[in-house]
């Protein structure tokens, strides 16, 4: 049985915008500079929290900065290019290096003072708890007079 997914009228528009930004950055260049990159990010809406999973392989926790300002969650960091080749030359450099920044507007009901984050196997997981009133609740249907 397929899973039921909450319909979001802006999901496709947002995905298209993000893909157009990536395409533009690859072909023309990024406005933030040539040494910036955008890590892949998934956002899940769970019953009790919004969960972000961001691919950040090779970054130490001290290289990742997370801020919340006016309900906007911002992830910043930098992947430094540190490998020196004394002999020979590079044949291919495909991994992205430099600074990155991703921002996400949180709903007003997010508990921004209870956000937690941890990294495991190159994936950063940020958990934003939801306020109790936004959780769905079941309402029993009774008979008249009950």
Structure explained in plain terms:
The protein has 146 residues and is mainly beta. It has a single domain (11-82, 91-133), classed as Immunoglobulin-like (Sandwich). Helices cover 12% and strands 32% of the residues. It has 1 helix and 7 strands, in the order αβββββββ. The strands form 2 sheets. A 4-stranded antiparallel beta sheet has the order 1-2-7-6, with no helix packed on it. Strands 3-4-5 form a 3-stranded antiparallel beta sheet, with no helix packed on it. A hairpin with a 3-residue loop joins strand 1 (41-45) and strand 2 (49-55). Residues 30-34 have low confidence and may be disordered.
Task: Describe the structure concisely.
By secondary structure, the chain is mainly beta.
Structure keywords:
Immunoglobulin-like; 12% helix; mainly beta; 32% strand; 146 residues; 1 helix
Detail the topology: elements first, then pairings:
Layout: H1 11-27, E1 41-45, E2 49-55, E3 64-69, E4 72-79, E5 98-105, E6 116-120, E7 123-129
Antiparallel strand pairs: 1-2, 2-7, 3-4, 4-5, 6-7
Count all strands and give the number.
7
Rg on CA atoms, Å: 20 Å
Q: Assign the CATH topology.
A: Immunoglobulin-like
In DSSP terms, counting alpha (H) and pi (I) runs of 4 or more, how many helices? 1
Largest sheet: 4 strands, antiparallel
Structural class comes to mainly beta
Task: Give me the strand/helix succession.
Answer: HEEEEEEE
What is the number of independent domains?
1
Question: What's the helical proportion of residues?
Answer: 10-25%
**Outline:** elongated
Rounded average pLDDT:
82
Spatial strand order of the main sheet: 1-2-7-6
Spatial gap, N to C terminus: 35 Å
CATH class: Mainly Beta
Fraction in beta strands: 25-35%
CATH architecture: Sandwich
